[in-house]
Amino acid sequence: MATEIERKFLIKDDSWRDAADSGTRFRQGYLIGAERASVRVRIEGERANINIKSATLGIHRQEFEYPIPLADAQELLDTLCEQPQIEKTRYHVRYGDHLWEVDLFAGDNAGLVVAEVELADENEPFAMPPWVGEEVSHDTRYYNVCLVKHPYSEWGHE
Questions:
Q1: Is the pTM here over 0.70, yes or no?
Q2: Is 30 designated active site?
Q3: 3-state secondary structure string, 3-50?
Q4: Catalytic residue among 30, 91, 142, 143
Q5: Fold type of domain 3-154
């Protein structure tokens, strides 16, 4: 069984950009966002995948991902996926022993920036970058599948 252990954080400032790569554009949509699992189609640069992820709350979830032809992904996104879709640019930032992913959202989720770190074990220690803020791993609002139904632009920001 494939497992993802991931922690998600808000960003305090833009200092992460100093060590970031050039970023990759993502477009993703959901075929199903059900009680037990979500089924996602994602175009990541020039690659495409279909992904099945358990709907478990928290940092430990089942995840299965398979490559699909780019043209198939574009058609699925254009014709079958829920709207609005997730648009974002993902940057990679090395900090300590870990590679962080920083997602800068666009479209209906513009203004949202989150950082994620994948771990081999739930209790694995990791160095916290100075640009990382509040942890939101257990806040479902920040799950991409939820951002489709309740985009960041509709939150009435604090």
A1: yes
A2: yes
A3: EEEEEEEEECCCHHHHHECCCEEEEEEEEEECCCEEEEEEEECCEEEE
A4: 30
A5: Hypothetical Protein Pfu-838710-001 (2.40.320)
